[in-house]
Amino acid sequence: MPNFVDVILPLPLDNRFTYTISEEEAVFLQNGMRVAVPFGKSKVYTGIIAEVHNRAPEVYEAKPINQILDETPLVTQNQLEFWKWIASYYMCTEGEVMRAALPGAFILESEHIVQLQKEAEFNESDLKDDEFLVVEALQNQSSLKIKEVEALLDKKSVLPILNRLMAKDIVVLSQEIYEQYKPKRVKYIKLHESYESEDAMHQLLDELSRAHKQREVVLNYFSLKAKSLKPINAKELQKISGTTASVLKSLVSKNIFKEYYLNEDRVAFEGEITRSHIEFNEYQLKAFGQIKAAFEEKTVCLLHGVTSSGKTEIYLKLIEEVLNEGKQALYLLPEIALTTQLINRLQAYFGDKVLVFHSKYSMNERVEVYQNVLKAGEGPKVVIGARSAIFLPFQQLGLVIIDEEHESSFKQYDPAPRYHARDAAVVLANLFKAKTLMGSATPSLESYYNAVHDKYGFAELSRRFGNVMMPEIEIVDIKEKHRKKRMTGHFSDRLLKEIEESLAEGEQIILFQNRRGFSPILECNTCGHSPQCPNCDVSLTYHSHSNQLRCHYCGYHIAMQKRCMACHSDDISTKGFGTEQIETELKALYPDHKIGRMDQDTTRGKHGYEKIITAFEDLEIDILVGTQMLTKGLDFRNVNLVGVMNADNLLNFPDFRAHERSFQLMLQVAGRAGRTKKRGKVLIQSYNPHHQIIQQVSTNDYAGMYKEQLQERYNYKYPPYFRLVRLSLKSRDFSKTNEAADWIAKAMQNVFKQNVLGPEFPPVARIRNEYYKNIMLKIPQNQSLGKTKAVLYKILISFNAISAYRSVRVIVNVDPM
Ligand code: ADP
Ligand code: ZN
Ligand code: ZN
């Protein structure tokens, strides 16, 4: 009989912890169940069982678990394996993965108190004895501690009982540190079983011939039933029968109807399926065939399809096939591309089989989706979600779609696990022997390389759907325009002319200005000083809207200055420009038109982003100015002109991927133009019109870009030829950070020689008064990744043992983006 369990705790600890279990518990316990366990002096944590075994730990005496929290596993065996892979590949702990993977409501940690749910509706006769005792006690006193429940029931393991009461929405666990999970309950009606036969039904209607109102309700029930298989909502039935709750009640008390409750999935779909059929054009047909053929031999396939070529339609078809096989599908895309537009499109085809998983959802909503995925018995579902959707408890995953696979936001930056959802999703799919399709108009060099080298299958769509032409791309030399005095603010005469023509035609316009590399800063024309953040090594950014100077790293802000803070000269001006300045200039140029702006400042809140998109779709905005948020898969019908205000600040960004990213961004934003019949137009303003990337964008020359960039990656030892691991050190002490970085770099150089780069200060070397230093390790293709990480791990353990460096934190980022 096994008498130990290994438990994963939601903490950054290197190991699982072993606890003892009783014989009874051993019979009951399975991997993936939650248990409450003591840890440290007096803490109680929720842990996940990773293994049940009979090996006593060698270095400590195992304590018994406190209680079992689940009746069936909350975490699947595949998830446990997936967590283990993530922890080992991305060099973090399983506990950190657990924290990222489970909605917080599942991980209770300290003293809880239970209360009766305020609007609890229940039948006492439906309660088990111990459940009844708890409810009765709670009717007499407002709350009970878990310990008091234990005393009341004379049992050690009471959380399963409480979990049942919670599931029935009778009892709630209240605890300060965790947000309450409260499913919304909806009342449904069904006909009593004894009336299910045709004869009984007729007899019933005869019996009710004098109870008109009741008869009416029953007839309405039948007509609803005939229309759809969905459960009949009590309120809805009452409404369409034009009757009162008491009529329904009397039918229930006559045992004609039965009432029951279901948790309403807050993200449930209520509309209708409006599409039943997808008909491919010849190019889609061919690409679809290529994908299917690739899946015969390979697990991953890359779909390179220009913007608006109909990639999404191909995804829909593949998902449909998988659902028909009774399997689940996962449709991953960058957070920001997860728009109502796309969700509606999926729902129109798959109806309530669509589950949406969004980081902006509340904990309740996430818990519901999690449980919905876990209950595979309720039918196959397609989950559409951003990167963290890879952590859902899939049962029978058949397909993973990774849309916009080139997007760097698939990589989690902070905190650990610093995983890349695209790469992790491939591993996830393999655990299920499922297939992965990556799609993009501008694939990442890494994925394209894998396709070229036959690791991935490949399919291509090089035409837009419906004979729509690719937009015409024109480059405007703004150095020249400046010289000839043909600039108005940041607008060339060419761009203004095109804008005016589009406005006259009643078309909409998108203007793209990436603020990331280049923001408006204040500069003194006398002494050159620009105001700096006192906490970070950056200049403050001017925000005209609030008339403030702000730090984008820590939020520090001061009022706009009229004089130079260094020399008091009043000859100061703003340098560089962001979306806000473009918006201001446009308002002055076109006072009669509506100008909108989409960037991090205007899209805060759960629906901020949605609101702007909807306003633009509803033609309430004529010109939309925005950052890279604009580039993400949006499908606007009435946009024919796209302007890139300044291509150079993208290209000059200090990162080895800057050129690849510029190409992707510009082509993606260009792809927003002319998605219907008329050919779209794109104007790119640049000081370097002959830059090879701008030339490649203008001719849509992906292959040329790929070839050239790949050569650079080869020459300078970057991915896909070398893998990277970046160590970031930080502390409040400048010299400690430096010394620590030197120590680690030296230890690494002893082993990895010239493949260690740095230590180096990052472009912003101080943030919130912490000093940063980076070390980069380059790993050649023929060097074992596992061994490399093991060495690195050893170095870090020795480092952590040095007390002088205790205040220095080391963050490891595998495959940094
Ligand atoms: P992508 O995902 O490659 O950007 P979409 O799938 O969004 O392209 O297709 C672009 C437009 O063409 C959409 O409006 C879509 O509805 C339409 N479309 C694409 N394929 C088909 C098809 N087979 N039948 C009908 N409409 C299609
Ligand atoms: Zn000055
Ligand atoms: Zn700052």
UniProtKB/TrEMBL annotation:
Cofactor(s) the protein needs: Zn(2+)
UniProt entry keywords in alphabetical sequence: ATP-binding, DNA replication, DNA-binding, Helicase, Hydrolase, Isomerase, Metal-binding, Nucleotide-binding, Primosome, Zinc
Record's cofactor remark: Binds 2 zinc ions per subunit.
Highest taxon in the source lineage: Bacteria
InterPro entries: DEAD/DEAH_box_helicase_dom, Helicase_ATP-bd, Helicase_C-like, P-loop_NTPase, PriA, PriA_3primeBD, PriA_3primeBD_sf, PriA_C
Residues annotated for Zn(2+) 2 binding in this entry: 533, 536, 551, 554
Gene3D superfamilies named among the record's database cross-references: P-loop containing nucleotide triphosphate hydrolases, PriA, 3(prime) DNA-binding domain
Keyword Nucleotide-binding: yes
Function: Initiates the restart of stalled replication forks, which reloads the replicative helicase on sites other than the origin of replication. Recognizes and binds to abandoned replication forks and remodels them to uncover a helicase loading site. Promotes assembly of the primosome at these replication forks.
Name of the featured protein: Replication restart protein PriA
